[in-house]
């Protein structure tokens, strides 16, 4: 159902249709930028009508969420590389928050919802069990001995990832006034998260 058009090459399943709409959105954003991309452009790029796009994505924000999700692994790899320079559990926790707050708004795909003024959609898309599992995987890939730091189980590591992610999402959605410097943000996270990782 809903395979009319598609430049003569209809997808075989709904997941494929959604993936191709997301690819069309990425192509439009890469070519014209976010501000000049709308549902009509995405539909034309995919070779379908706007109604077909709406069948799979009820709004542009939902498409941007899917585009952001597609960029999550690339961002995770950049964060892993950044955190590899630290071997203290406290510093890894601190730097994960600072890195996310400073990097996410400029991420080519993951920061789209923030740049589009859709912070609520960004938060809803990020505050999910798969996102927390990805966060735990990033922490696990560091040189830190999490067990020695008091993080005894995989479930506890996911809880730590969730706390850190909710913290950076809060800073992104509701920035300090005036904005905190990197060092001020580091000191704040170190002061309040640090004691939990020394036990």
UniProtKB/TrEMBL annotation:
GO molecular function annotations of the record: DNA-binding transcription factor activity; transcription cis-regulatory region binding
DNA-binding stretch(es), residue numbering of this chain: 38-57
Keywords per UniProt: DNA-binding, Transcription, Transcription regulation
Domain HTH tetR-type: 15-75
Coiled coil: none
UniProt cross-references to InterPro entries, sorted A to Z: Homeodomain-like_sf, HTH-type_TetR-like_transc_reg, HTH_TetR
Alphabetical list of PANTHER family matching this protein: HTH-TYPE TRANSCRIPTIONAL REGULATOR BETI, HTH-TYPE TRANSCRIPTIONAL REGULATOR RUTR
Name used for this protein in its record: TetR/AcrR family transcriptional regulator
Naturally occurring in which organism (per UniProt): Amycolatopsis dendrobii
């Amino acid at each position: 159902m809903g395979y009319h058009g598609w430049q003569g090459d209809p997808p075989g399943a709904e997941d494929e249709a959604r993936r191709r709409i997301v690819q069309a959105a990425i192509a439009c954003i890469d070519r014209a930028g976010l501000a000049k991309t709308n549902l009509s452009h995405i539909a034309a790029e995919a070779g379908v009508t706007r109604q077909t796009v709406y069948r799979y994505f009820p709004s542009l924000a939902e498409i941007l969420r899917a585009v952001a999700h597609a960029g999550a692994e690339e961002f995770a790899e950049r964060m892993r590389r950044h955190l590899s320079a630290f071997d203290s559990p406290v510093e890894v926790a601190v730097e994960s928050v600072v890195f996310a707050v400073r990097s996410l708004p400029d991420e080519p795909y993951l920061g789209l919802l923030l740049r589009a003024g859709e912070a609520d959609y960004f938060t809803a898309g990020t505050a999910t069990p798969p996102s927390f599992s990805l966060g735990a995987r990033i922490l696990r890939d560091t040189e830190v001995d999490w067990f020695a730091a008091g993080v005894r189980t995989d479930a506890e590591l996911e809880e730590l990832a969730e706390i850190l992610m909710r913290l950076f999402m809060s800073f992104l959605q509701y920035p300090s006034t005036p904005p905190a410097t990197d060092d001020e943000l580091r000191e704040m996270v170190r002061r309040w998260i640090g004691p939990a990782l020394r036990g």
